[in-house]
Write a structure and sequence with these properties.
Helices cover 37% and strands 20% of the residues. It contains twelve helices and twelve strands. The longest helix is centred in the middle third of the chain and has 20 residues. The chain starts with a helix and ends in a 13-residue tail after the last helix. The protein binds manganese (II) ion. The site of manganese (II) ion has 9 residues, from loops.
Length: 292
C-alpha cells in the first residue's frame, strides 16, 4: 500500500490512480470563450470538466472573463468563483496555465508577458505537439477587421492588411472607452444568419493563412464559438469552441494527437454510472451579448 500522499503528488500519474480519481489525462487542453461574468456562461459544467481532466499545459484562449459585460450588467455567482479557484489550484499543483487574452478580456492584454499566481499571460504563441507539429495559439478577434474587408483585401498589399488589423484594435479600444460593446463581425452576422456561414468560412481561412504566413503547421483559436478541426490548404485549423453553447475543448492526447472533446463525452467517460445524465448536455439559449 502506498501512503495517501503518493497518490496526490502532482507527478504521480499511475493508471490505477487515474481510474480512482476518475480523471482523463492529456498533454494539453485548450478552452476559450467562457464569458465568466455573464449569465450565458455555463460555469458549473466547466467546473465539472476541469475536475474531470488533467493536463501538463492548460491554455485559456481568450474571452475567459467578460470585461465588456462588467461595464453593463455583471453576473457572478459561486460557480464563477469556483472556476477561477480551480484554475488557480491547477497552476499551484503544477499545471502550466497559459492565458492568451481575447477581446472580451482585453483589459488583461496590458499584462502580457507577466505572471500572476502561476498563470502566464501571453500574446500569440506557438505550441509544439508531441508529434512536432507547430501550432499558432491565439484568440482570433484580430481578424474581425480583415474579414470585413476580405473581398478587396485580396487586391491590396500586406501593409494594408496589417493596418486593418490595427484599425480593428484601435476601433474597439475606442468603443470600450465610450462604454460601447465590442463590435464583432461574427455577432453582427449571427443576427443576419444568411451571411453567417460565409463569415465563419472567411474566419477559418484567414486564421489558417496567418499560420501559413508564419511558416507553422496549424492554428488553434476561439472567438467564433464554433468547435472545429479541419485541414485548410495544408494547415490544421482548430477551434476549441466555447462554454456558452457548445461546451467543448480541444485536447492533445499523450501521443500528440489533437481532437475535440465535449463536456458530455468527458463526463460520461469519467462517470460511467451517471452516463444518462451526461448524454444529452442541455443546451441553453445563447444570449446575444455573449457571442464571441
Ligand atoms: Mn472573442
Amino acid at each position: 500500500m502506498k501512503p495517501r500522499d503518493d497518490f496526490l503528488a502532482p507527478d504521480f500519474h499511475g493508471a490505477e490512480v487515474e481510474e480512482k480519481r476518475g480523471k482523463q489525462r492529456f498533454r494539453a487542453i485548450w478552452i476559450s470563450d467562457i464569458h465568466l461574468g455573464t449569465t450565458g456562461c455555463q460555469a458549473e459544467r466547466l467546473l465539472e470538466f476541469l475536475k474531470a481532466t488533467e493536463s501538463t499545459t492548460l491554455y485559456l484562449v481568450g474571452d475567459i472573463i467578460d470585461g465588456w459585460q462588467l461595464k453593463r450588467r455583471w453576473y457572478w455567482d459561486q460557480a464563477h468563483n469556483n472556476v477561477v479557484q480551480t484554475v488557480l489550484k491547477k497552476a499551484r499543483k503544477g499545471t502550466e496555465v497559459i492565458f492568451v487574452p481575447g477581446n472580451h478580456d482585453e483589459a488583461i492584454r496590458q499584462f502580457i508577458d507577466l505572471d500572476f499566481g502561476g498563470i502566464h499571460i501571453r500574446d500569440e504563441l506557438v505550441h509544439v505537439t508531441a508529434q512536432g507539429k507547430r501550432m499558432l495559439v491565439l484568440h482570433g478577434d484580430r481578424f474581425d477587421g480583415v474579414i470585413a474587408c476580405a473581398k478587396w483585401l485580396a487586391y491590396v498589399g500586406d501593409s494594408l492588411y496589417t493596418m486593418i488589423l490595427k484599425f480593428n484594435q484601435v476601433f474597439n479600444a475606442w468603443r470600450a472607452r465610450a462604454g460601447l460593446p465590442y463590435w464583432s463581425l461574427s455577432q453582427y452576422l449571427k443576427l443576419k444568419v444568411k451571411n453567417a456561414v460565409s463569415y465563419i468560412t472567411s474566419f477559418e481561412t484567414a486564421l489558417a493563412a496567418e499560420a501559413k504566413k508564419k511558416g507553422l503547421d496549424g492554428v488553434i483559436c476561439g472567438h467564433i464559438h464554433k468547435p472545429e478541426i479541419r485541414d485548410i490548404d495544408g494547415i490544421t485549423y482548430c477551434n476549441d469552441g466555447d462554454w456558452v453553447e457548445s461546451l467543448s475543448a480541444l485536447v492533445e492526447d499523450l501521443s500528440g494527437e489533437l481532437r475535440l472533446v465535449s463536456w458530455g463525452e468527458i463526463m460520461a467517460q469519467t462517470h460511467p454510472h451517471k452516463k444518462d445524465k451526461y448524454r444529452a448536455g442541455k443546451k441553453r439559449e445563447l444570449a446575444p451579448e455573449c457571442v464571441s
